[in-house]
Automatic annotation (TrEMBL):
Pfam entry (one): CT_C_D
PANTHER family: 5-OXOPROLINASE SUBUNIT B
Protein's UniProt name: Allophanate hydrolase 2 subunit 1
Organism: Rhodococcus wratislaviensis (Tsukamurella wratislaviensis)
InterPro entries xrefs: CT_C_D, Cyclophilin-like_dom_sf, PxpB
GO molecular function: ATP binding; hydrolase activity
Top-level taxonomy: Bacteria, Bacillati, Actinomycetota, Actinomycetes, Mycobacteriales
Alphabetized UniProt keyword annotations: ATP-binding, Hydrolase, Nucleotide-binding
Highest taxon, organism lineage: Bacteria
Residues in Carboxyltransferase domain copies: 2-193
Amino acid sequence: MMRILDVGESAILAEFEDQGTVLAHFRALDDSRPPGVREVIPAARTILVRFDHGATSRDRVAKWVRTTEPAAAVAEDAPEEVRIAVRYDGPDLEDVAELTGLGVDGVVAAHTGTPWTVAFCGFAPGFGYLTGGAPDLHVPRRATPRTSVPAGTVALGGEFTGIYPRSSPGGWQLIGTTDEPIWDAGRTPPALLRPGVVVRFAPVSTY
């Protein structure tokens, strides 16, 4: 079920029941923007649609959102896929191994064994919230966040995995590091991890 709310004069917010539905609708909407729609921004359970109030109307945009069929757009094109080499050397790796009962090798196997998908971005420019990995890796965030997490750190938090694009505070469980530039202002687009992108992780030794 979808609910649409007004957000000022030039935006609407579509609310959904789950994250998978958000991602499917985002792919469809982002691929079929009508004239006047400026941005389609997904989050955990919502999609914000910003439009040019002078070029279209709220009713027109809301009708487009309601009537766009997600499955058709997803089926047309394969999503972009990136591979990221990871050194599984994070300070919380052993804690995660204990929390999950998988052991260190099991955590690495679970993290690399299935593809992840960028559901939405937030927290910092280029920080993607990746979902769809092994359920065994769902772990709580740390009780006390760190004041500084280095750029390139691979982490787990709740149902998500992510990579810190730059040094910043953070409360996720740190399991590894990568040299892949997650955010590069000189690249187009600057963010490597964007909503809809599929990510496959691989240990450095076997990459």
